[in-house]
């Protein structure tokens, strides 16, 4: 099994990672043929009570680290990455990681960010998706398309420019994030006065992340939801009887 090296001593983010994330990183490393993960920035608030930068690290839900094989650090450029790094990113996405950042002008040629949080995305220089290396985008999106979560939930965002995740079932509620096209979503229930808002889970843990209008959610090929329920939703233009969902 891959080795987990804690190198956070003296760092602001020195709180432990969640067991879920630590397992994800080690499982991905094993599948990618990586010997060790050296974590230099983990959870926050840290031992000093301080936090810094991205809130994705809150509660140990994200890590910045390097990867080693045979005691040597793996490195990448903005144009290409070793096959082990590509495999690692893909597997992380398959296992449910929702945020991955890398880039020479982001954290250098060896360090990568992996964790949870919204929106589901990748990024590079300045923390922007537009600056994410092409290899990172392709590896991440390929992993999510093949993820267990994507195969099980049966639905995905279909809006070309993404859909707004709102705090409640209506346009008057605050926008939490914009969820990119093709993001898998688990529909937990149908809400709103007109039954046209989906209460959704974006990471597969059974908890509500917010609401997306049903006009921007569509069926995907594979689904772990009951076929009769999906058929009802499609026939009714997604305006399903809320009681049907509650019984499932």
UniProtKB/TrEMBL annotation:
- State what protein this is by name: SH3b domain-containing protein
Q: Where is the composition biased (Polar residues)?
A: 41-55
Gene3D superfamilies of this UniProt entry?
SH3 Domains
- Note the Pfam families from the entry: SH3_3
Chain segments carrying region Disordered: 40-59
Q: Which domain of life is it from?
A: Bacteria
List each copy of the SH3b domain by range: 162-210
